Description:
globular; 855 residues; mainly beta
Amino acid sequence: MKTLALIVSMVLTGVVLSAQEQGPIPKISQQITNYFSYFPNEKIFLMTDKVRYKPGETIWFRAFVSHESKLEKEESNKLYLGLYDKSGNAVVKDIFQLNSASASGDITIPDNLDGNIFFLVAYSSIESAPDQISITKLRIDPEYSNQWVIETTMKDSISTSGKKNDLFVILRDISGVILKNEQLKYEFKNGNEVLEKGKLKTDENGEVTVTLNIPGKTNGEPFICELSDAKDVWKHEVFLPSNIDPIVIRFYPEGGNLIAGIATKIGFTAFNKWGIPVDVEGTVLNQEGEKITSVKTLTKGLGLFSVINPLQQKFKLQLSGIMGQNQSFELPTSNAAGLAISVVKTDAQFIYANLVFSEKQKQSVALIITSGDKVCWAADMDIDGIGRLKIPADRLPNGINLLSAFSKEGNLLAERIIFRDNAEELKINVLAEKKELAASGKMKVKVQLADENNQPVSGNIAIAVTDNFRRELDKPNIKEYLQIESELETPISVFPDVFNGRIGNSAQMDVILIANRIKGFDWVKIRQFKLENMSDANAANYRISGIATDKSGNKIGNAKVSLVNKKSMQLHTTTTNSEGVFSFANLNMSDLEDFWAKATDSEAKRDLNVDFIKILEDQISVYIADNMRKYSLLDVDRIYDQAYFNNNQNLFPRSQKTIKTNTQSLDNQRKLLSTATSIMDVIKSIKPFRIVNNQIVFYGSENSINFQGGALIVLDGQQMGTDTGVLNSLSPSEVDHINVSTNAMDIQKYTGFNTVGVVEIFLKKAKFNETTVRKENTNKYNGANRIPNIFPTESTKLENLTTLLWIPEQKVDETGQFEFEITAGKVISDFVIEVQGATIDGRIGSGKTAFSIIK
């Protein structure tokens, strides 16, 4: 075997050993360089001061970018940051300057957000695919003292179709106090379809049981039990897993191939339709229906089995357990000839692998190991049936790598993800002066940076001092994210039960590597890349998605969308979500010309228009709506410790009485607007009124016998007065939705003199999900770029803050030491000092310690 360590820079300068001149390695390496010059393998780790916020608070962030783009500076120095809701709508967006692969800044959360899960999205202008961007899950909740919290368990963890299941509910307030004799309403739904509803009351223990009849079929949406109070002020949704939930199973033969006659390990992932890992079991059957092997997940969502396919038969997995019962899935087709790769062992010194050809004659193979967009090891090898590899681990960087094998003609034969876990690291030691600190007290903290040999090193770090109740224990740190989590299409974090402690080379890790792919790395795209096909290469990263609308431009939910391949006549179908958006996860925009599309409403009575989404920003919205739904389904209310609640009552004000502005949903409004002939008729259906002096007067709102004021009319934020004549020329088909309110707070947004009400009309041409209005004298801009605000350090501003200190970018000199001071506020809690950062030579690491603020 001839071995050569091959670095990309060597290829570029022509420094290639003669042993490689006739082989495919130099050409393949150059193709990698060409491709990633235009599509850099960029990863962004976003560190935020915390992950739980209140509306109106500030999110402080630091972005660590793993790659500096070689594109034109003007195009590559921007960091786009956006806060998105679970439907994919942008709540706040801004642009920040990137300097030396780093950016820091802040965004203010709108103070009118309802409690829910949101997503902080960060990407640069060189990003080309929504599934490669950085997405951080955040919880934003007002947290009121009279807020209800439920704890639920199901009698049977998986509901069975055609049978009853009991949902046990315990009702408390946010501090954990049991709520006795409270009336609960429930609705049992399959998606938006209501199956059952009723009213119940909690007993003396705050408990109640909801008995649900699970139907014999599903419409493809999740089963949800929606719980609410008698006045519909509070609502909580409970996801009910069932045996008829649609299951998605993906198979990953080790090395990428199932070769006839060769025993092959096959990793597989099992998720429900909404991305939640599930346990499944079943049997692999051949085309005669004979049992080949039994299959069962090792942990939720992840499994491994081995098969030999001697005759290129079609195998399928038939599920037989509770989850996905009777659903079946075809295994990949086996090849009569080809190469199989199997990693046998990985240790600190070497990676051992077997290469097996189905043909017994001598074969020449070119081997390449890549890490991101770099070639870090390469070799030529002659194989006579079976070859054994012994790869020196010290040639490989920490984290995820890809071993690929090519024929002498340069055709891809096999590929296998491998993991290198060496001792090279950045150690961050955080030393607090005290373990306890009185409210308003001060103390010093030292940070020490060292390498794996405990020698001091310089670096750049970010520091957050945060209330422990506002953090999450399972959030990956910078090293876990950049070296592992962001590299894999199916990240480790979706399998929470796999590892207990440190992630390293293990049997569990090997299963994850087999049942996975490298994110943003596709040999087909790399090998086919040509400069003249740049637009096609970019489109290949976008999924075919779009919006279905009627002739008036209204977005139609639950519409049926069909795509037919003009060449193969294969049919692909899906339905739109409530916002009229659809997506085909396995079809790329670059293939769009091969399809014709059709959309109809849910009853197939009306033909609809189909508009395809072709820009990254809109693709991100679709990606969030399609892939982040699992977080909403699994959302669990949080109860605070009684002592924390009692010590920090200023953090938990009572919720104000909710005033319903509209009695009609937006979907119903839009249907009415599409058929109505008068705007006034639509307003009257939302809130009844009478006309006085050509003005709208809502019943019950008369404010004077002698002079009656009318409701203020606002068109896309512009005040139009109270005369209804301004609506005469406005067609209902031009309107997206209408907000009618008699709430004083809503009225005072526009005027302090009107006490009757406000009618806010929003046109379709308005951009509702654009960046919220910039507040004067708060945020400053340099052109399009936001100038970051400075974290407040005055003690008077820290009193009720749950983030005491935020230092986004701090350089540490060659002594490896930095010292700073903490001033305690008046929030009585455990606080965590978290430090994350990197050295100039690429070491990354994190460290933390904790202390308590006491009375």
